[in-house]
Every structure is written in C-alpha cells, then in structure tokens.
Amino acid sequence: MGKQMTEMLKGTLEGIVLALLTGKAAYGYEITTLLREQGFTEIAEGTVYALLVRIEQKGLVDVEKRPSEKGPPRKVYTLNAQGKTELNEFWNTWSFLSERLEQLRKEGN
Amino acid sequence: MGKQMTEMLKGTLEGIVLALLTGKAAYGYEITTLLREQGFTEIAEGTVYALLVRIEQKGLVDVEKRPSEKGPPRKVYTLNAQGKTELNEFWNTWSFLSERLEQLRKEGN
DNA sequence: GCTTGGAACTTAGTGTTGCTAAGTACCGGT
DNA sequence: ACCGGTACTTAGCAACACTAAGTTCCAAGC
Lengths: 109, 109
Hints:
The structure is a homodimer.
Chain A: H1 3-9, H2 13-20, E1 26-27, H3 28-37, H4 45-57, E2 61-66, E3 74-79, H5 81-107
Antiparallel strand pairs in A: 1-3, 2-3
Helix pairs in contact in A: 3-4
Chain A binds a DNA duplex through α1, α3 and α4.
C-alpha cells in the first residue's frame, strides 16, 4: 500500500505484534508469516526482528531459545504482565484515535 | 496520552488535518485550536505548522495570505484536487488497518 | 563432498514524522 | 511603554519502519 501505510504502522505495528502474542507464544519468523497471512504483505522481515528486540528491551515479553530442526535456534516470545498492561494501553489509545477518525469521516466535512 | 499516542499520530495526523480542511479552508492557529477541541489536546503547535509546510510543499493545499486584526497575517490553507486524492488514499489505508485491528481485538488473541 | 535453498536471526544506515524549545512579528488594552 | 494573546518560524532531537547486506544452521540435490 505504500508510503502512507508505512507511516501509519508507526505506533500500531507494536500493538499488532503484542496482540498476536496474546495467548500464543511465537518466534520471529513465525510472526512475520502470521503478519503476511493477516494481510500485511509488505512488512519487511528486518522490521519485525527489530521490533522484537525493542519490546524485549522494554520488558514486555519473555524470551526463550528453542532449537529448530530446520535452522538456527528460534527465539520464542511470550507476552508477560507488563506486556499485557502495555497492550491494554495500546487498545485505549487506538480506541480514542479510531473514534475521532470515524467521526471525522462521517462529518464528510 | 503520552508516547504511544505520539507514535500513533505519525501517519494519521496528516490525514486528520486534510480531513479538517475538507469543505472549509483554515489557517494554522485555527487548525491547532480545532484539533484541541476535537480532543487532541496534546498536539504541539510547532507540530501543526511543520505539517502544514509539508503538505504545502507536497502540493496538497493552496495557500493564501490574509491580514488579521489581531496579529501577523494568517496563512489560509485550502484543500486542492491533489489533496482530495491523497485524502481518499488515506481513508483507504486507514480502513484497511482499522479492519485488521478490529479483527485482532475481537479474536482476543 | 559440495552446493543450493529455505529457515531463522542480526546489524548498519536512511528517511519520515512528531516533539521540544526558543524565537519573531503584529496588535490591543492597560 | 509594556504585557498578553494571536500567528507563524526554525533548529535540533527521538522513535520508528525500511533497505540491504550479512550470518548461522540444516536438509536435500547433484
């Protein structure tokens, strides 16, 4: 979708990944393919890995290394308590923004 | 709302301003107060002016200088044809993202 | 045995964006 | 003459997604 989407993903992609991790741990490569299945076909692999490093450093996820049969060891990410809190705040922020925008769209204006 | 909102506004603030300009020309200071009335109380003045310069350079708006009784001359921005096209694309991008996120939220997951 | 290809992750550098902070210009009221 | 509100500008910063190139590990092919 291009440049607009790139900019719009700033601030939302982190929330999307946190949401994907709710109830189901996953590793980077897996998350990338999940995103692509969800329609985010243009998200670069490097972007996802960088994001994962970031949320790990922020302490939003726990990490566990597990061997893979097909390649180098996987880093499996699990949402922890702090991550759930962050995800909640994300949904709040999103709701606020979403409501304003839908209103603006209705006004046509 | 803090840092999350700051990041989420990247990519959406431009669309919001373009939407505000639909059908009604406005100048910078006015747009800032409009945004605040709409609930975006934390958006910095400088941010809005910088954005206006940007969309002018992109050719999305036409600008006209009009004297003010209360201060320096106002720069009045009007959405032009190219701006309307951009706004349409913005709504498309927004719709896509919005649908994905609502689905994610529903899944709970 | 060696190479190819896919799985899985890493790193360095770039551009865009919103924010902070400070400033300038103009005017009315006290 | 000064202050506060209007209105706009500018320089520097931080965060984020992207590009591009790389590294590691293993299985299957010739």
